[in-house]
Amino acid sequence: MKFILNLFTLVLVLAATKTGLAQQQSLAGENTNSITVLPIRWAAPLCTKIPGNKNRITWTVAETVDTKTFEVQRSGNGKDFSIIGSVAATAQTISGAFIFEDVQPLAIAYYRICSVDVQGKKMYSPEIKALSQKRNTSIRQSLTETIILFGDSEKRLITLLNISGQQLSNTVSTSNQYSIKNNSLKKGIYLLKIDTEGLCEVQKFMVL
Asked: 193 or 28: which carries more pLDDT confidence?
């Protein structure tokens, strides 16, 4: 009788163990299925013209978890893109941005960034258009006024910054010139950031 009871107890233990394992496996499956991989959040890339007739592409993302690399893709017509370089996901600058320089830019180019994760999945940034033609921007100054002359009357966003990078004003212009009253500024060095169709140009001037 004692042997029969022990055998019965052993069967119950084994059955309970099997049931517990099945429940754990079921819960594990539910947990796996409930995990959602959030899409990468982009800040639109920015193209800046730099000395040497180069285009500097910068971009930021909210996070780089599971991201392996960023492909920089370029197109001449906004449809057919090809890879012109890549940046490792660990290559962030101190400010958190990623940087790539196109040393042979097209006259008119479209750029986008492709994020590639460790499993090979890809996600794309918004596209930007960059014009590499010379803008012929110049600055003329008098004692009372600073005038910026443009080579065309395209729509552009003009941002005035002090030397510390603090934004002082933001203006949309469709004129071929932009003027600033010198008496509205303190003596010092100022920067004008000019954005036109994805191309960013920076001009420096001084108020005496």
From this structure: 193
Of the options 2.40.50.100, 3.30.300.30, 2.60.40.10, 3.20.20.70, the CATH number for the domain spanning 138-207: 2.60.40.10
pLDDT in tens, 3-25: 444 443 433 333 444 444 444 44
Q: In the CATH scheme, what is the code of domain 42-131?
A: 2.60.40.10
pTM of the model as a whole? 0.51
- Report angle CA 154, 199, 144 to the nearest 5 degrees: 60
Cα dihedral value 81, 83, 89, 90, nearest 10 = -150
